Amino acid sequence: xxxxxxxxxxxxxxxxxxxxxxxxxxxxxxxxxxxxxxxxxxxxxxxxxxxxxxxxxxxxxxxxxxxxxxxxxxxxxxxxxxxxxxxxxxxxxxxxxxxxxxxxxxxxxxxxxxxxxxxxxxxxxxxxxxxxxxxxxxxxxxxxxxxxxxxxxxxxxxxxxxxxxxxxxxxxxxxxxxxxxxxxxxxxxxxxxxxxxxxxxxxxxxxxxxxxxxxxxxxxxxxxxxxxxxxxxxxxxxxxxxxxxxxxxxxxxxxxxxxxxxxxxxxxxxxxxxxxxxxxxxxxxxxxxxxxxxxxxxxxxxxxxxxxxxxxxxxxxxxxxxxxxxxxxxxxxxxxxxxxxxxxxxxxxxxxxxxxxxxxxxxxxxxxxxxxxxxxxxxxxxxxxxxxxxxxxxxxxxxxxxxxxxx
Amino acid sequence: xxxxxxxxxxxxxxxxxxxxxxxxxxxxxxxxxxxxxxxxxxxxxxxxxxxxxxxxxxxxxxxxxxxxxxxxxxxxxxxxxxxxxxxxxxxxxxxxxxxxxxxxxxxxxxxxxxxxxxxxxxxxxxxxxxxxxxxxxxxxxxxxxxxxxxxxxxxxxxxxxxxxxxxxxxxxxxxxxxxxxxxxxxxxxxxxxxxxxxxxxxxxxxxxxxxxxxxxxxxxxxxxxxxxxxxxxxxxxxxxxxxxxxx
Lengths: 407, 247
Hints:
Chain A is of the alpha/beta class. Chain A is 43% helix and 14% strand.
């Protein structure tokens, strides 16, 4: 691997057999086409992380791909945040003035950004209204990464006409796709097996991270990764651990990024304060590598949010060969093959029961972990994601006859 | 293709293959190479959702053929690591959401490779559901999560692999992307109505090996993952090559 990020060839060792060569073949037929991706920000979050990898690889494949970022005034980010929450179904006050800010910002950016392409892909709320200035010729896609199944009705009534101006919308799972007048495609997110979060990590390096995070590896570790927010249900996870703890000597690690001031972290610390086997780890500097080390050190990974989008943390844990016990929120059930790569549960008691079952049958832990890694290899790696993009590009920009004939 | 045409094509193929009777079969060179094509799928959500068996029946009657194909075959491409998982989305949903074992098993038994066309599969699904609903003495149970219909658009892609001999065919089959098996076996037999699938057809008509073709055509595409299907093809091909070596 070179210093500026992995090339497609670097994925040969981890991707399914023949898939990299196959990707090169798909790209052959698309060489020379141009894609523009537009996001609100170039940093932070899963979208930026994946585009950081996919855009250079598409260019290496001969598909001219640029990544443009919106420029907005100081209040634009707050407006986008509120509208995003409203579309996720969280009641928000979104005023006419706020919607006007979206219009003005997108109109300004439409004049500024080079959007001539075969395919323009705008991501999420911030860039949605760029479509007002779309030119003839290019195909336009709106990529929404969240759950649009139950948006705030008035807000959705105001924004849906803009979505219908696109040639298609792309969602992460069928259940996230709102009814639309335009086509709705499904592309599941992915994890990058060569990223800091998911790359192979020697045991000595894992140990250094665990030592720095003050997490002893002296007993089986149950791990939940996620922000310290009520929706991640950290207290429910502690209660599940307590049901297990009476039968098995295990350690619980709750790890997540530094939270907003919401008081949940204090509650979690208070709940953990009387038990030295509960570690509450707030990740700061080396977040991705720390998560990598924690997931590899874990015996069983829990992912028990009350609400989530796709929940790619599940795939990240399965990639490290860990059985995952997950809730029914978001697209978690579409990642876990229950009884094969882990279990889906609806209650604290259900989570505790499954943890006990695995600890009592340790041979299952290895077997499910291996099945989970293979499941991710086939369905949730960035190579599959890239292939989906290429397929969609071929489908949207090649004539039907061309499509049937093959490349 | 009618039978006479098929026989004629086979004879032409054998003549074109310049087979000499003193050469072992594995050395036969086909006049027309086998061109391996893979495929990618574009998944599209369509506006049909079912919450119970009756709604499932109604929508199965209405959805595009590509949706029936999607839910009864594309699972093979994205098969879970569970070797004994039910082989189509309808059976999986009824099992998980309606918890109706009887209907699950009947839907799982709908066999696209025996029925040979999407419309025949649709008719079999409809008949299975209608029969089941007639037997119910109470309203059908509701699902927590609806069945969301989708359809897949198949985009074929040449892999760059070609074979003119049986050893070349075996070697290519070892290396190709797994979607190639989907395209030449599942898509060919089920969606495009090419009865035995492309592999068996070529081995018979271009290499003149009807017995091997017969063996390949009887490999069950539902026998686990497509990787398993690949293994079974490789076992049959390696056995044939070993037999050639002993001849």
